[in-house]
Each structure stands twice: as structure tokens, then as C-alpha cells.
Amino acid sequence: MITTYLRFPSEEVWKQAAEAVGIRTNNPILVEEESIDPDTGDVIPAVYEDNWSWHYYTHEWAVDEIGTIYNDDGVYDSDTGEVVTPPTPIEGWHVNFKSNKDIDWIGFTVNPESPYRKFAGD
């Protein structure tokens, strides 16, 4: 299996990409059945609620959703350990993807010199 390091502009873009490849699926739940308005005879459509599922680990892949990564530039009080200056975030939403399946992540792959987090064995 090959590990691919990914960076998306936002969590929302990650969710869309994950949905496109089947990592995230929606199986809506019926909340209210279709009915007929007794006054007008109009059909009132059924109401569904989103029901998202994540498939982080399958026989085809493993996903490690990291999210925001921070630089090592925070300043802390040496006596109390309290944050004096918080670390700055690295741009993007970060995900590690390990698979033998060929998925096209064009525009989202990155090649970090020193990955923030790795899968065991990498």
C-alpha cells in the first residue's frame, strides 16, 4: 500500500472529495413520508435527513484525517507552560491516505519532507 499526503483548501473541500471517491457516503433517513394536503390535494414531498457515514478503514484504504496542523512557533511560559503566543496554523486541511487503489487526488497531493503524522510501518 502507498501513502499519499493530502492537503485540501478547507474541511468542506475534503468532505466533497471524500464523497466523490466513496470515503464519505450519505444514506438519508426518512423523517416524514409523502402525503397529500387535504385542503388543496397537492402532494407534500417526503422529508429526508442527511445521514453521513465515513469509511476510514476498508480492505482498499486507510484514512487518517488530521485536519489543521500547526507550526512549531508557539511561545510558552517556561514556568507555567501557559501559551504566550499560540502556534500559527499551516494552511489547509490535512489528510493521510494509504491505499493500493489508484485514486486521482490531482491538486491535493503534497510531499512533506517530514510528515506531521505517519501510518505505522511508514
What is the radius of gyration computed over CA atoms, rounded to a whole number of angstroms? 21 Å
Strand order in the sheet with the most strands: 8-11-1-12
Span between N and C termini? 10 Å
Low-confidence stretches: none
Outline: extended
| Approximate strand percentage | 35-45%
Classification by helices and strands: mainly beta
What is the percent of helical residues? under 10%
What oligomeric state do these chains adopt? single chain
Total strands: the figure is: 12
Main beta sheet: strand number and arrangement? 4 strands, antiparallel
| Overall pLDDT | 91
Sketch the topology as an H/E string, one letter per element.
Answer: EHEEEEEEEEEEE
Count of discrete alpha- or pi-helical segments spanning 4 or more residues = 1
Task: Give a short overview.
With about 120 residues, the chain is mainly β.
Notable characteristics:
122 residues, mainly beta, four-stranded antiparallel sheet, 1 helix, extended
Structure description:
By secondary structure, this protein is mainly β. The protein has a domain at 2-26 and 55-110. 9% of the residues lie in helices and 43% in strands. The chain is built from one helix and twelve strands, in the order E-H-E-E-E-E-E-E-E-E-E-E-E. The chain has one helix at residues 11-21; strands spanning 2-8, 24-26, 29-32, 35-36, 43-44, 47-49, 52-54, 61-70, 75-76, 83-85, 89-99, 109-110. Strands 8-11-1-12 form a four-stranded antiparallel sheet. Strand 9 (75-76) and strand 10 (83-85) form a beta hairpin. The chain is extended and about 70 Å long. The mean pLDDT is 91.
